[in-house]
Inverse folding.
C-alpha cells in the first residue's frame, strides 16, 4: 500500500511539473463544473426526481402546486415537467441572491405550448423592479423577451422565440461591469443589449432578502400564463458567464460528458493585458538591480528577499524593486553543501538579478521562545477620537455587540437539539444559510457564536448590563450542549442497548450504510449509539464517511467538512472555559476530543494523509490548534497526539518521509483552498507552543512569509484565483496575482484574512519583527474594518477588487451564516486585542497599533491612555499612569518614511527610528508621563507583483479607493509625478479624502458604493 502511494505521489508531481494548472488530489469533488469554479455557482437543479439544489448552498426549490411531476426523456433521462396550470411553479429561496457581482442563468428547456406570455423565470423585489424572461414571447409574435427593469429604467433584449416540442439550451447573461445583457440559444448569441444601466441592487432588496421573489415558471403578474415545459439542469450563477463558459456547458451536455472533460479550469475571462516587455511604474526608471547572496542550511530552500534595493535614473528615489524568483516544488536543489544560483526576473524589464545560494551544514538553531503574551480583552478598552467621535473600531464593535446581545441562543442550539431528536422550545427558530436543516455544515455558526459571546463578555466590561446578558447566554448554551453530550453513547430509559465505543457506531436505524442525510425524515437521532462524549449538530456519519473516502458535495454519500465544523464548536467551548472558567464547557470539549482521539488514533497514516488532502471534505479548520490547546490546559498527552494526527503531511512535510514541504520552505500550498489551509498553519504554531518541536514553527514562519509576499492583494487578503477557477483558492503559481488572480465573483475571502491575522498575531509573540505588525495593521484597517456594512453588522464574504467593484454584505440580523459571517462575529468582538502586548516577564510593553484606547495593566498597577484621532491624524499621545521601570517598545511602521518623532513629556528624544522596526524607551516611569509619537503620512503605491502599473494608493497605512460613478471593465488610468506622487494629489477638506484628476479617493474602509482599489498608474 505504501509503495503504491509513493508512486502515485511521484506521478502526480511529474504531472504537475509539466505545467498542469490544477492539483488533482486537492481539487476533487464538485469544485469545478464545466470549467466554472463552484464559488461562481449559486444553485443548480438537475431535476433528477427532485428539486434539490446540488450546489453546496442547499437552496432547494419550493414547489407551489399540489403534485410535482417528472418525465422520462430520451435525451436527458428524468426531467422536470411543468404543466402550465395555476400554482404549478417553483420558487428559489430568497437568500440565494446574496453577494452577486453579475448574474447568469443556464438551463435546458423543452416548451410544450406556443402560448404567449409564459415566463421561464422572474426575479425581483416587486413587479416594478424585476428581471423577467419569456422565451416564447409576450405577444403572439412569439419573440423571445428578456428584460431588466427598475422604477426608472428598463432594458429589453429580444431574440427569436424558441421552437416547441424540442430541447433548447438557453443562457441569460447579465454582465454589470460590461453593461451587457445577453441571450444565448444553443450556444449562439441570439440577442444582446450593451446599454444596460441598471444595477442588481435596484432589482433586489439587499438588506432584506425575504422581500425578494425568485419564481421559476411563473410571472409576478397573475394574468400571465404559467410555463408549460420540461426543464433540465437549471443553473444560477453569481457571475457573468463568458462565451467560453456557455460553450463548455452546452458542448459537455451535448457530448454527454458533463463536467468530467473539463475539470481542469481553462483560463477564461481575461482582464486587460499589457505587453510583458514593457517596464511599468518605477521599473521604467530602473538602471540597475544588484545580484544578491543568501545562505541556507542543507534541506531548506533559501528565503529569497521579495524586494531588492535598486538604482534609478537621475535623482529618482524609487522604492525597493520586486523580484520574482522561481519557486521550486521540492528541495532537491539544497540536498548538499555547496553553492548554486537562481535567476530572478523584474516584471516588464530584462533585469535578471542572480541570487547566489550558499548551502551550509545545519547550524544548531535555538528554538524560538514565546516571549510575549496578549492582554486579556477586558484590559484594553476602545476609546473615542480626541473630539469625541466614535472610531471605526467602536462603530464596528457596537454594530456586532448590540446585535449579538439580541440573538436567541435557541436558534444556535436548534440543529443540535434536532440531531439529538429533542423537542425545541416553542419560540425557537432555526438559522438559515449554512445551518439550515439539510446543510452538512450545520452547527458551524454555533461554534463561532460561542467564541463571539465569550469575547463580547470579556470585552464589554465597560457595560455591566451587557456583560450580564452575554454571561447568561454562555451559561445557557453550555448547559444545553452539556446535557446533549451526556446523552451520547449512554444508556437511555427507552433504549436498553447502546454503544459507548466511538469506533463501534452502527448504521442508523433502518439503514444499510452511513449517509449524510439530514432531512427531517432521513436524519438518524439514535444518540445512544453515537459513542461517549459525542457532540455536534449532526449525527456521527459524516466523520465516519470521511474516513471511508467520501468527498465533498451535496449528495447523501458526500460530506462537507465535518472536522471544520467541529473545530469551531471545540474552539468556542475552550474560549468560554478560558474566559469564565466554566468547567462544563471544558468537559464537553474533553468528551468530544476523546471521541475524536479514539477514532483517529486507529486509522492508518495513509488514510489520514488522504483525508486531510481532500478538497473541502477534509477541511478541518484548526482542529490541531484546539487539540494542542486542550493539551496545554489538561496536560493529557492524548490531545497532543491527536493534534499530530491532523498533520497535513503533504503541505507540512511534502510526504510521509518528511522530505520537504513548508517545514523546509517549499511552497506546497499554491493552488490550494486558502481558508482550508491557513487555520492548519495557525494550528501548527500552537502545536509548536505546546510541543517545542521546531518543524511546527518553521511551517508557520515559512508559510507567512510566502503568503504575504507571493499571494497578497493590497487589502491584506490572500485568496482569489482565476487559475484554478476558484475565488477561494491561492493562485496556481506564486507571485502571479495579475496573471492568475483577480477571479470573477470576488477575491479575498474574509475568513482567510481573519485567520491570517490570527497567525500573524501568534507569530509575533515569538518573533517581534515589525513586518508582522505592518501586515496586521494592513489587514485590520483595510480588510477587517472594511468588511462591515454601513449601518448594521452585515459583512462581506469575498471582497472583489476588480475595476469599479462593490462590496456585498450578508447576515445583518445574524440569522444565517457563511464561514465569513462566522469569523466576522469573532473579528469584531476582539478588535482591541493586538494594540498592546507585554512580555511574559512583565518587563516590556509593546505598542503595536495607534488606536484610541486604554490599557489597564492590573498586574503591574500600570495603565496607558492612548489619545488620538488616528488615522485621521498622524500622531498619538500616550499618557502613563503608574510608577516603575519598564521598557516600552514602539512600532515604527514601514510606511513612516517621512520621519517618526518621539517626545517624552514634551521633549523631543534622540532615538533611532528606522521604518519597519521597534524602538525601545527604557526608563523609570511615573504617573503623568506622556509619550507623543508623530509619524507624518506619505502617499505610496502598492503594485501587483507581476504587473506593476496595476497598483493601489495608500496614505500612511490607509488604502484609498477611487470612487466610481458606475461599473466598468477596464482599470481606471491615472498619471502621477514620478519624482513626487503627492504633487498631483489634492485634498478636499475632509480627513483622508483626496482628489486626483477629478477622481475622489476615500479610505477603502469607508467605501460603500462602487470603487476601484487597483488603478492603472503611469508615472511621468
Ligand atoms: Zn469564508
Amino acid at each position: 500500500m505504501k509503495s503504491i502511494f509513493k508512486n502515485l505521489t511521484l506521478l502526480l508531481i511529474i504531472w504537475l511539473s509539466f505545467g498542469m494548472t490544477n492539483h488533482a488530489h486537492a481539487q476533487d469533488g464538485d469544485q469545478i463544473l464545466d470549467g466554472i469554479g463552484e464559488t461562481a455557482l449559486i444553485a443548480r437543479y438537475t431535476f433528477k426526481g427532485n428539486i434539490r439544489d446540488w450546489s453546496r448552498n442547499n437552496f432547494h426549490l419550493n414547489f407551489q402546486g399540489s403534485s410535482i411531476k417528472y418525465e422520462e426523456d430520451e435525451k436527458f433521462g428524468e426531467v422536470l415537467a411543468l404543466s402550465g396550470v395555476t400554482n404549478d411553479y417553483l420558487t428559489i429561496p430568497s437568500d440565494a441572491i446574496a453577494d452577486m457581482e453579475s448574474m447568469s442563468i443556464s438551463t435546458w428547456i423543452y416548451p410544450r405550448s406556443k402560448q404567449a406570455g409564459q415566463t421561464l423565470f422572474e426575479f425581483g423585489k416587486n413587479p416594478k423592479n424585476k428581471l423577467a424572461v419569456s422565451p416564447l414571447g409576450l405577444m403572439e409574435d412569439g419573440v423571445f423577451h428578456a428584460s431588466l427593469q427598475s422604477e426608472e429604467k428598463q432594458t429589453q433584449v429580444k431574440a427569436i422565440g424558441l421552437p416547441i416540442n424540442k430541447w433548447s439550451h438557453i443562457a441569460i447573461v447579465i454582465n454589470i461591469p460590461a453593461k451587457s445583457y445577453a441571450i444565448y440559444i444553443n450556444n449562439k448569441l441570439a440577442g444582446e443589449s450593451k446599454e444596460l444601466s441598471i444595477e442588481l441592487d435596484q432589482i433586489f432588496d439587499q438588506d432584506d432578502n425575504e422581500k425578494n421573489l425568485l419564481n421559476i415558471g411563473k410571472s409576478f403578474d397573475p394574468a400571465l400564463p404559467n410555463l408549460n415545459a420540461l426543464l433540465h439542469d437549471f443553473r444560477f450563477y453569481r457571475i457573468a458567464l463568458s462565451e467560453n463558459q456557455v460553450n463548455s456547458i452546452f458542448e459537455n451536455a451535448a457530448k454527454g460528458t458533463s463536467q468530467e472533460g473539463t475539470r481542469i479550469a481553462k483560463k477564461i475571462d481575461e482582464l486587460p493585458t499589457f505587453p510583458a516587455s514593457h517596464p511599468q511604474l518605477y521599473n521604467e526608471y530602473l538602471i540597475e538591480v544588484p545580484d544578491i547572496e543568501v545562505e541556507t542550511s542543507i534541506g531548506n530552500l533559501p528565503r529569497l528577499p521579495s524586494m531588492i534595493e535598486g538604482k534609478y535614473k537621475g535623482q529618482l528615489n524609487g522604492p525597493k524593486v520586486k523580484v520574482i524568483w522561481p519557486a521550486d516544488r521540492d528541495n532537491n536543489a539544497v540536498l548538499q553543501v555547496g553553492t548554486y544560483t537562481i535567476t530572478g526576473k523584474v516584471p516588464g524589464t530584462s533585469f535578471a538579478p542572480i541570487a547566489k545560494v550558499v548551502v551550509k551544514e545545519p547550524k544548531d538553531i535555538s528554538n524560538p521562545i514565546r516571549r510575549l503574551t496578549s492582554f486579556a480583552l477586558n484590559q484594553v478598552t476602545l476609546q473615542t477620537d480626541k473630539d469625541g467621535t466614535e472610531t471605526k473600531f467602536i462603530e464596528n464593535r457596537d454594530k456586532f455587540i448590540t446585535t449579538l446581545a439580541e440573538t436567541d441562543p435557541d436558534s444556535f442550539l436548534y440543529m443540535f437539539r434536532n440531531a439529538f431528536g429533542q423537542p425545541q422550545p416553542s419560540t425557537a427558530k432555526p438559522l438559515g444559510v449554512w445551518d439550515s436543516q439539510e446543510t452538512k455544515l450545520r452547527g458551524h455558526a454555533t461554534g463561532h457564536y460561542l467564541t463571539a459571546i465569550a469575547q463580547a463578555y470579556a470585552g464589554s466590561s465597560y457595560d455591566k448590563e451587557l456583560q450580564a446578558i452575554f454571561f447568561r447566554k454562555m451559561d445557557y448554551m453550555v448547559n444545553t450542549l452539556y446535557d446533549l453530550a451526556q446523552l451520547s453513547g449512554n444508556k437511555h430509559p427507552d433504549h436498553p442497548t447502546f454503544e459507548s465505543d466511538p469506533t463501534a457506531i452502527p448504521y442508523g436505524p433502518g439503514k444499510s450504510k452511513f449517509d449524510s442525510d439530514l432531512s427531517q425524515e432521513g436524519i438518524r437521532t439514535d444518540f445512544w449509539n453515537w459513542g461517549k462524549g459525542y457532540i455536534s449538530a449532526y449525527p456521527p456519519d459524516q466523520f465516519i464517511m470521511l474516513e471511508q473516502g467520501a468527498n465533498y458535495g451535496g449528495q447523501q454519500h458526500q460530506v462537507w467538512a465535518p472536522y471544520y465544523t467541529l473545530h469551531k464548536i471545540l474552539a468556542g467551548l475552550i474560549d468560554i472555559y478560558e474566559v469564565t472558567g466554566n468547567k462544563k464547557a471544558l468537559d464537553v470539549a474533553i468528551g468530544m476530543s476523546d471521541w475524536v482521539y479514539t477514532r483517529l488514533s486507529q486509522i492508518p497514516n495513509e488514510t489520514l494523509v488522504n483525508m486531510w488532502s481532500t478538497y473541502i471534505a477534509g477541511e478541518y479548520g484548526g482542529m490541531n490548534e484546539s487539540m494542542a490547546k486542550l493539551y496545554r490546559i489538561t496536560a493529557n498527552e492524548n490531545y497532543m497526539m491527536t493534534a499530530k494526527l491532523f498533520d497535513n503531511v503533504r503541505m507540512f512535510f511534502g510526504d510521509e518521509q518528511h522530505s520537504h514541504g513548508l517545514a523546509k520552505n517549499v511552497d506546497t500550498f499554491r493552488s490550494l483552498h486558502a481558508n482550508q489551509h491557513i487555520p492548519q498553519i495557525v494550528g501548527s504554531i500552537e502545536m509548536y507552543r505546546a510541543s517545542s518541536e521546531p518543524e511546527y514553527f518553521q511551517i508557520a514562519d515559512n508559510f507567512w512569509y510566502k503568503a504575504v509576499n507571493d499571494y497578497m492583494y493590497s487589502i491584506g487578503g490572500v485568496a482569489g484565483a482565476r487559475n484554478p477557477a476558484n475565488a477561494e483558492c491561492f493562485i496556481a503559481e506564486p507571485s502571479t496575482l495579475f496573471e492568475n488572480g483577480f477571479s470573477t465573483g470576488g477575491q479575498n475571502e474574509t475568513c482567510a484574512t481573519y485567520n491570517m491575522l490570527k497567525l500573524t498575531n501568534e507569530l509575533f509573540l515569538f518573533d517581534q519583527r515589525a513586518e508582522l505588525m505592518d501586515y496586521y495593521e494592513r489587514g485590520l484597517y483595510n480588510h477587517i474594518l472594511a468588511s462591515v456594512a454601513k449601518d448594521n453588522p452585515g459583512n462581506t464574504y469575498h471582497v472583489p477588487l476588480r475595476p469599479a467593484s462593490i462590496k456585498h454584505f450578508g447576515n445583518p440580523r445574524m440569522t444565517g451564516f457563511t464561514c465569513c459571517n462566522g469569523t466576522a462575529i469573532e473579528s469584531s468582538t476582539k478588535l482591541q486585542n493586538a494594540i498592546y502586548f507585554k512580555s511574559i516577564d512583565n518587563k516590556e510593553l509593546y505598542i503595536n497599533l495607534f488606536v484610541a484606547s486604554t490599557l489597564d495593566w492590573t498586574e503591574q498597577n500600570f495603565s496607558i491612555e492612548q489619545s488620538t484621532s488616528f488615522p485621521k491624524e498622524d500622531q498619538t499621545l500616550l499618557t502613563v499612569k503608574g510608577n516603575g521601570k519598564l521598557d516600552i517598545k514602539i512600532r515604527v511602521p514601514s510606511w513612516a518614511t517621512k520621519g517618526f518623532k518621539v517626545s517624552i513629556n514634551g521633549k523631543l528624544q534622540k532615538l533611532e527610528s528606522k521604518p519597519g522596526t521597534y524602538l525601545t524607551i527604557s526608563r523609570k516611569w511615573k504617573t503623568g508621563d506622556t509619550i507623543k509619537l508623530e509619524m507624518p503620512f506619505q502617499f505610496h503605491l502598492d503594485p501587483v507583483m507581476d504587473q506593476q502599473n496595476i497598483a493601489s494608493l495608500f496614505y500612511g497605512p490607509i488604502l484609498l479607493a477611487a470612487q466610481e460613478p458606475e461599473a466598468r471593465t477596464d482599470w481606471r488610468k491615472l498619471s502621477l509625478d514620478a519624482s513626487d506622487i503627492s504633487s498631483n494629489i489634492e485634498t478636499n477638506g475632509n480627513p483622508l479624502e483626496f482628489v486626483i484628476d477629478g477622481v475622489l479617493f476615500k479610505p477603502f474602509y469607508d467605501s460603500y458604493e462602487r470603487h476601484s482599489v487597483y488603478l492603472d498608474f503611469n508615472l511621468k
Summary: The longest helix spans residues 464-487.
